[in-house]
UniProtKB/TrEMBL annotation:
InterPro entries: Rhodanese-like_dom (IPR001763), Rhodanese-like_dom_sf (IPR036873)
Record's protein name: Rhodanese domain-containing protein
Chain positions covered by the region annotation Disordered: 1-23
Naturally occurring in which organism (per UniProt): Pterulicium gracile
SMART domains xref list: RHOD
Biased composition (Basic and acidic residues): 12-23
Length: 330
């Protein structure tokens, strides 16, 4: 029979003591560092510059917290060039104001961002303050960190910041950090007008004037073997001068090019035409030569009008084919 050796009544606790409690200022500093890490991880390198947009949590003192985040970014990216936009959503005390801080190592980038933001947000941007921090952080390379702080007014009817403001800020930073190698060479990731036209047409099933007339006639007469069983309209986006000079198509729907997406979008209930109530409408876009119509038709497909297309050769081809034309009275 085994016996147990008596153990000492003394007990040694090898557990580590709990970490000291942080005061409120230290908690805010830790939160700012965590936001800075998240902002850096989400950033992308563009033209050798780290670029990113980050929305932080709402706080009672948004400007001070954004400056803490900016300092934490500077401490982490001491030897790198960067440009960040930090945005704080409305607080309980200021429900219609966002706080925006643009921070970067290059004064030209920050200056350019502030100018683009002023132009993009027009009268919403207020109280822009340059170099708001009383002292700059100096990295090991001696580069200053420049900051612009502003209030972004948001009316109650405006959607959440993520709906428009975040993509807009991404576009602002992208443009601000772009430096063309030569004014005579196209910048990277740009497309010529001919390339854009080819890209648009690659996603359309374009039709000839004869096919357009056939589709419209079949839709009006409810022919069983009609190419499409949806309402079909020819949309004339030419200028008034072109219509008066070259003629019109009887029954064509006159829509200004600038108004086209809003008037034909079924979701724009306050602005759409009476025909634009459903997404399966067959919109056949027509211009004078068949170039602008391709870009316009592609835009319609992007808002969900997948049956939209355009007419090859435009009104000029329609007229050359001997199809009916209505001339304006002199």
């Amino acid at each position: 029979m085994s016996t147990r050796r008596a153990t000492s009544s003394s007990h040694v606790d090898y557990r580590e003591p709990p970490p000291p409690r942080l005061n409120l200022d230290e908690v805010r500093g830790q939160a700012a560092r965590e936001v800075a890490v998240r902002a850096i991880r989400k950033s992308k390198v563009q033209n050798s510059v780290k670029v990113g947009v980050t929305e932080v949590m709402p706080t009672k003192e948004p400007a001070q917290f954004l400056l803490r985040v900016a300092d934490a970014i500077a401490e982490t990216l001491q030897l790198q060039s960067y440009l960040f936009a930090l945005i704080s959503p409305p607080s309980e005390t200021n429900r219609d104001e966002l706080t925006l801080l643009i921070v970067g190592t290059d004064p030209e980038f920050v200056e350019g961002s502030s100018m683009l933001a002023t132009a993009k947000f027009t009268d919403r941007l207020q109280g822009m303050i340059r170099d708001v921090s009383p002292s700059y952080y100096y990295g090991e390379d001696g580069a200053d960190v420049h900051r612009y702080l502003a209030t972004l007014y948001t009316p109650p009817s405006t959607p959440a910041p993520q709906t428009y403001d975040i993509p807009a800020l991404h576009d602002i930073l992208r443009k601000a950090t772009f430096r063309p190698l030569s004014p005579t060479n196209p910048p990277p990731s740009s497309y010529s007008s001919s390339t854009l036209l080819s890209m648009a047409r690659s996603q359309l099933q374009r039709i000839t004037p004869e096919q357009a007339l056939e589709e419209v006639t079949a839709a009006q007469e409810n022919i069983d073997n009609a190419p499409t069983h949806a309402p079909t309209f020819i949309v004339d986006i030419r200028s008034q001068a072109q219509k008066e000079s070259h003629g019109r198509i009887h029954g064509g729907l006159d829509v200004e090019r600038n108004d086209l997406p809003w008037l034909l979008d079924p979701s724009e209930k306050g602005r759409r035409t009476v025909m634009a109530k459903q997404y399966d409408v067959r919109w056949i876009v027509m211009c004078q030569t068949g170039d602008a119509s391709s870009l316009a038709a592609k835009e319609l497909t992007e808002i969900g009008l997948l049956n939209a297309t355009d007419m090859v050769g435009g009104f000029s081809a329609w007229k050359r084919a001997g199809l009916p034309v209505t001339m304006s009275p002199p």
